[in-house]
Write a structure and sequence with these properties.
The protein is mainly alpha-helical. It is about 45% helix and about 10% strand. Helix 1 crosses helix 2 and helix 3 crosses helix 5.
Length: about 100
Protein backbone atom coordinates (compact mmCIF):
# COMPACT_ATOMS: atom_id res chain seq x y z
CA UNK A 1 0.00 0.00 0.00
CA UNK A 2 2.71 2.53 0.91
CA UNK A 3 4.74 1.39 -2.07
CA UNK A 4 1.80 1.97 -4.45
CA UNK A 5 1.32 5.43 -2.95
CA UNK A 6 4.97 6.23 -3.64
CA UNK A 7 5.75 6.66 0.07
CA UNK A 8 8.38 3.89 0.15
CA UNK A 9 10.41 1.85 -2.32
CA UNK A 10 9.92 -1.88 -2.84
CA UNK A 11 13.35 -2.51 -1.31
CA UNK A 12 12.13 -1.17 2.06
CA UNK A 13 9.14 -3.54 2.30
CA UNK A 14 10.67 -6.13 4.67
CA UNK A 15 12.13 -3.46 6.93
CA UNK A 16 8.79 -1.69 7.09
CA UNK A 17 6.95 -4.89 7.99
CA UNK A 18 9.36 -5.53 10.85
CA UNK A 19 9.00 -2.00 12.20
CA UNK A 20 5.20 -2.06 11.99
CA UNK A 21 5.09 -5.35 13.89
CA UNK A 22 7.39 -4.08 16.64
CA UNK A 23 5.49 -3.78 19.92
CA UNK A 24 8.38 -2.18 21.82
CA UNK A 25 7.46 1.26 23.09
CA UNK A 26 9.32 4.54 23.01
CA UNK A 27 8.70 7.93 24.56
CA UNK A 28 7.84 10.38 21.87
CA UNK A 29 6.41 13.84 22.25
CA UNK A 30 5.56 13.21 25.89
CA UNK A 31 3.66 9.98 25.21
CA UNK A 32 4.53 6.29 25.19
CA UNK A 33 3.86 4.77 21.78
CA UNK A 34 4.77 1.51 20.08
CA UNK A 35 7.43 1.63 17.38
CA UNK A 36 4.89 0.25 14.89
CA UNK A 37 2.39 3.01 15.65
CA UNK A 38 5.13 5.62 15.40
CA UNK A 39 6.18 4.31 11.98
CA UNK A 40 2.55 4.33 10.86
CA UNK A 41 2.31 7.97 11.97
CA UNK A 42 5.53 8.76 10.11
CA UNK A 43 3.92 7.62 6.85
CA UNK A 44 1.52 10.55 7.00
CA UNK A 45 4.43 12.98 6.78
CA UNK A 46 6.26 11.28 3.91
CA UNK A 47 5.78 12.99 0.56
CA UNK A 48 4.45 10.85 -2.27
CA UNK A 49 6.94 10.19 -5.03
CA UNK A 50 6.06 9.14 -8.53
CA UNK A 51 8.42 6.15 -8.38
CA UNK A 52 7.04 4.16 -11.29
CA UNK A 53 6.06 6.99 -13.63
CA UNK A 54 7.82 7.91 -16.81
CA UNK A 55 9.93 10.98 -16.24
CA UNK A 56 10.79 11.80 -19.84
CA UNK A 57 8.75 14.59 -21.40
CA UNK A 58 6.31 13.58 -24.10
CA UNK A 59 6.60 15.51 -27.34
CA UNK A 60 4.23 15.61 -30.21
CA UNK A 61 5.95 15.57 -33.60
CA UNK A 62 5.18 19.27 -34.14
CA UNK A 63 6.46 20.19 -30.67
CA UNK A 64 9.64 18.24 -31.35
CA UNK A 65 10.14 20.13 -34.63
CA UNK A 66 9.59 23.48 -32.95
CA UNK A 67 11.92 22.61 -30.09
CA UNK A 68 14.70 21.58 -32.46
CA UNK A 69 14.01 24.33 -35.00
CA UNK A 70 16.72 26.70 -33.81
CA UNK A 71 19.32 24.02 -34.61
CA UNK A 72 18.23 23.97 -38.25
CA UNK A 73 19.65 27.40 -39.08
CA UNK A 74 23.33 28.10 -39.61
CA UNK A 75 24.59 31.16 -37.73
CA UNK A 76 24.93 32.99 -41.06
CA UNK A 77 21.33 32.17 -41.96
CA UNK A 78 20.09 33.36 -38.57
CA UNK A 79 22.00 36.64 -39.01
CA UNK A 80 20.52 37.09 -42.50
CA UNK A 81 16.94 36.51 -41.34
CA UNK A 82 17.38 38.77 -38.30
CA UNK A 83 18.68 41.56 -40.58
CA UNK A 84 16.18 41.24 -43.44
CA UNK A 85 13.12 39.83 -41.66
CA UNK A 86 13.23 41.22 -38.11
CA UNK A 87 9.52 40.70 -37.48
CA UNK A 88 9.57 36.96 -38.10
CA UNK A 89 10.54 34.53 -35.34
CA UNK A 90 13.55 32.36 -36.22
CA UNK A 91 11.74 29.27 -34.93
CA UNK A 92 9.00 29.88 -37.48
CA UNK A 93 11.54 30.14 -40.29
CA UNK A 94 13.43 27.06 -39.14
CA UNK A 95 10.22 25.06 -38.74
CA UNK A 96 9.25 25.97 -42.30
CA UNK A 97 12.69 24.98 -43.47
CA UNK A 98 12.40 21.56 -41.80
CA UNK A 99 9.15 20.70 -43.58
CA UNK A 100 10.57 21.29 -47.06
Amino acid sequence: MWINEGKLTPASKSLLKALLACQATVNFNQETISVGALVARLKEFLPSQNIFAELAPVHTPQAAIEQAAHHLLLPEEAAFYRKHFPGIDLKTIAAGKSTH
